[in-house]
Amino acid sequence: MSAANRLEVRDLHRSFGGVRAVSGVSFTLESGDLLALIGPNGAGKSTCFNLLNGQLRPDAGSVRLDGAELVGLPPRRIWALGVGRTFQITATFASMTVAENVQMVLLSRARRLFGLWRPASACFRDEALALLARVGMDAQADRPCGVLAYGDLKRVELAMALAGDPKILLMDEPTAGMAPFERLELMALTASLVRERGLAVLFTEHDMDVVFGHATRVLVLDRGRPIAEGTPESVRADARVQSVYLGDEA
Ligand code: ADP
Ligand code: MG
Description:
This protein is an alpha/beta fold.
């Protein structure tokens, strides 16, 4: 693991036609950060994620990982350099087991590093089980992903993201569709992973209990523009944030 793990985002811009989806967004993410990106629907959160992981190219701005520019690199390359994202549900293979899904990612990473190729079933089972134990899913390692409860699947997705050995982890609505207690549990797990692995996490979340309970910092977007950044306490107390965002969030 690298010592630094520093993502510097400077003055990102991206429009779609006449819509300024992201307009002048800057922030820095470092080891130990659990930064919540919040804002109403359409504020530009998902666009930010897609700009950071290479799925979209910014009109202007820079994204540097430990000093190296990422803008212009393809998503696979950005992933290989250490910017991971939680897999969406469609990214797990329903007929494969929980362990095999994690092994796939471990294999993919090993092939990238060492040009290794072996059948997934023979490779990295112990490593996969260790990651699954960390997210509390080792007991279900040999079940097909297709039969898992929704909250369990989200934890497998987290294990798959960790299998890529990220420095920076992007989580766009990681708890969407989960029950309230499961959301808090998943974010508590994420927070402990941040501490033990020196990870830096950027996440979006609608549930304000989760945001204010676990984020180390909060960045608020409104129509593409950053309107506040700071500790959960300072952001919660910000009058502009309250009128733009928290006021209409029931
Ligand atoms: P959020 O994730 O905060 O809800 P998004 O980043 O998805 O917001 O969207 C920000 C704005 O950009 C919205 O107005 C949305 O309609 C627009 N937008 C996002 N992606 C596209 C796209 N691929 N094409 C056109 N408009 C888009
Ligand atoms: Mg979104």
